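Hi all, long-time lurker, first post. I run a small reading group and we've been trying to get comfortable going from sequence to structure in the token notation. Rather than ask abstract questions, I figured I'd post a concrete chain and ask someone more experienced to write out its structure so we can walk through it together at our next meeting. Sequence below, copied exactly:
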Amino acid sequence: ATCTIVCADGAVSGVHCVLIFAGQASKGDASPTVSCEVEDRSTNGTFVNDVAAAPVRDRDVLSLTKPPAVGEDGVASPSGVRFRVELQAPAPTAAGGAKAAAFTSAWTSDGFAQDLLLQEQQSKATVTGELLVVRRRLDEERSRFESLGKELRRARATLDEERARRVA
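-- Answer (accepted) --
Happy to help. Here is the structure in token form:
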């Protein structure tokens, strides 16, 4: 299958969902209305504003992973694959009016790129933070190991001196 957006996340299916866009010219209005439906094809679910299989409206948040869990502190974790939906009507045609037949709607590629970049930066920051914590723990363990090694050498030296004194 050909996907418009590919997410490198284990919780996102190969073809996670399909967005079905439709446009309709409103009577007496030069701009068409835009509608979007989500067809979930995943086993993990697709969520709109953290509700499963809800209709999509402009500025809604489409989540390809389960809604974030709320911790004991009442704050939701920021993880997950989420996109903000921007439904846009086409520019008017040369004749001056927007035609339903010429209607195209899409999420803006800039919005996708920005969301993906933000998610990538958040992931990198999380990984970097975890690596720094692990490195600090490793340094602490090395320091503790070295001090225990010195203490062990001193104890052995003291023991050897005590043995030599008792033998003599």
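A couple of things your group might point at:
The chain is about 35% helix and 15% strand.
The two ends are 86 Å apart (CA to CA).
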